[in-house]
Design goal:
By secondary structure, the protein is of the alpha+beta class. Helix content is about 30%, strand content about 25%. It has 6 domains: about 5-70, Orthogonal Bundle (Arc Repressor Mutant, subunit A); about 70-135, Beta Barrel (OB fold (Dihydrolipoamide Acetyltransferase, E2P)), CATH 2.40.50; about 140-210, OB fold (Dihydrolipoamide Acetyltransferase, E2P), CATH 2.40.50.700; about 230-475 and about 550-615, no CATH class; about 485-535, no CATH class; about 630-710, OB fold (Dihydrolipoamide Acetyltransferase, E2P), CATH 2.40.50.140.
Amino acid sequence: MDLDIREKRKEKLIDFMHHKDYRPMKVKELMMILEVPMQEREELEEILQELRLEGKVIRTKKGKYIIPEKLNMIVGIFQGHPRGYGFLIQEDPTVEDIFIPAEGVNGALHKDRVICRITRSSHGDKRAEGEILEVLERGKKEIVGLYEESKSFGFVTPDDQRFSQDIYIAKGKSKGAVTGHKVVVSITDWPKGRRNPQGEVIEILGHINDPGVDILSIIREFELPTEFPDSVKRQLETIPTEVSELDIQDRVDLRSLPMITIDGADAKDLDDAISLEKTSEGNYRLGVHIADVNHYVLENSPIDQEAYKRGTSIYLIDRVIPMLPHQLSNGICSLNAGEDRLALSCMMEIDAEGNVLDHQIVESVIQVDERMTYTDVQKILEEKDLNLRERYKKLIPLFEDLETLTHILHKRRNNRGSIDFNFEESKIILDSQGKVIRIELEERNIATNIIEECMLVCNETIAEHYFWQELPFVYRIHEEPDPEKIQKLSTYIYSFGYRIKGANNTLHPKEIQKLLQDIEGSLEEQVISRLTLRSLKQAKYHTQNEGHFGLAAKYYCHFTAPIRRYPDLQIHRIIKNQLQGKLSTKRVSYLQKNLPEVAKHSSITERIAEDAEREVEKLKKVEYMQDKIGEIYEGMISGISPWGFYVELPNTIEGLVHVTSLDDDYYIYDEQHHLFIGEHTKKMYRLGDRVKIEVVRADIIQRTIDFQLA
């Protein structure tokens, strides 16, 4: 049957069940009232089953169908917790999660799609509670963990501790694994009552101490792709390695423009180049030139389908899991110096106040003059390195004009209220065996600022251009923060002598910006910055332009990284469609229908990538601290929880001081004020306090570091 007809019938069925007079009905009753012919009964049952799996209807024990809301039930994703309880996460991110106590989990595992019944409504600060009635769909059927052997069976402890139960492995189902092996387990029997899930080992990743097995385990835990399918490899054989004369026909030739790329020293996928000229009126003509990946990655081709599935490139310290194959990202699509390359160029005329007076978006052919690194540009502009200035003397005026324009653009952005977080970020250096040698703090400099400001103004210009064209598009949006979270932040920072205007009503990003300026250089800067960030919503992709709160921008999108982000690739496709006159009514209709799913999927893959990158970083930091047991450091209290407080060291490593280790008093947790207070001594440990700690444990399996006060 036609998918559209099936979807319409599903909608009709749901609308019917939402009616105030609807009562639970069996299939036979539904057929009679909806006048469904007998020969279509099987199809109706299939539709009802699909709606069940989607969580839109439930089937009672008597075989009657009803929407969950009418029985005080909710469908969502179960998020487990190491201690056995969990939370029901609903599709609507604005709705608070529902607490599921351990006795109400009823065999659900982390990431399962479930039906939950509310057992206690929310009141005050207490969130609603519920119990799981049914698992609609299992979230993960394969789990990565550590194998341990006993006499007559084995068991696997999942790496992701939100799977709170060990998996029982019967004799003969271990694939030869021995104690200490990292393995992938396929679950064959799901938990019932107090019985643990059962499974069989389907892959041995290696021993926990073998080089590379730690990161490989995370790759498998997050189900990240490590190989490109054969269809992609076959398509790669048809893609040229050089730009031909035929390719550059009908393109704007910008090869005579002085042009550079600025990237990290080890970057190989160079997808953005910049050029800059001064006009006779004294304005700046900034060109942002982005690799025309779409010329080689045609819509719905095997490479495009795989890129959509991956959504983004993932950076895991010692390796990259790329969105596009290296033959493209490091080859014909990389803007290598001295080579002709196809690009989409946004040429902007910007005045001395940073206003974009005019712009053009064109398909171009370019040639980069120099491949610069952040370090060299910083040495040229800030350290006035004589050797580098001599080597690049022809480009010195370009660098200096870029520096001036960067300050202009930043000032304009700052004046409108754009928020800049000054977080200290770490770079983890590994040896050839994958072991951590050292952890360095990454410093921002003028070179990183140049690229950031050029890309920001370009992304805003592109987004505004297509907003007024009223065409289907993918925007990067950042919604206004939740007032309740801002109110909590306001209450907390008040104890440090800071305040946020508008915390009780409409908040302007300028207020957050002012707070960050006020705390700059203070002892509590990093803590308040982090709390502030947690109080804001996450940015995401969307087909409706809702503005970007953090940037204080009315229009924003991601256009500048099509090698590593699928939304950028999708935007390039829309732009090229328009430039080539291919946005027919049919094409516009197709985009309107498909872009919401592209935006949603891209947001999901972005979160997965961030989580995987965070886990690898956490793992390597734990590994680094394993030979530091007993050493004393000074750090800052960076987080407070009911079980203790977290202390962050100057190198960004964070560990937990368990409340049970505070043996000089009984300490009470004050959630509202983010502190612990001694019952008798009234001694306090607050967010932002400086403390001396001793490293007592670094658990590579649980990826945790424990401190105690020194």
